[in-house]
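User: structure tokens for this one?
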Amino acid sequence: MAPLAVIAQWVFRGIALGLKPDFDIQSSIMFFLWAAFIEETVKFLVVKFAVLHNSEFDEPLDAMIYMISAGLGFAAIENVLILFQAIPNGTEAAIQIWLLRFVGATLLHAVSSAVVGYFLALSWFYNRHSSKLIALGLGIATILHLIFNVILLGSNGRPEGFLYSTIFLMFMAGMIAVLFAKLKKRELADPKFS
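Assistant:
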């Protein structure tokens, strides 16, 4: 599904440049918001169509695990695609980009997908509100994804951008650990899953 996200982003870019030829993609918050939303949605759709109705998907915690797996798969494909784009800039530049993306983008996709997974898991308990919960999860994950991108965008490649983005990702990872523990506790307390 990662290539679909790339195609959707290229379509958005083409539309934006068609409407406004001097549109600066690299500093556009709207582009990064759109890109984050597309990526979060694509990762969710993978889980929805591949495993959501599978008999193995039989407990709420599975939602977070499958979403994290989808996020890691997406990050792997995205990192490879970006590496190929960076190769013409020289081997050293490509390796630097790959190392930064290996840590930052991979963790970003895992934790933002976990947020969606948490809300997908909540939909097991609040079935009547599942569409709203999933939409809320996608919205929150998109905003967190956007914040990460804005931190890096605002740093203009300065080292503090790496520091601030790492702190932000560590905060998100801690939040995911808390949500995972709360979900596990709730699942254990529910007689349906005991």
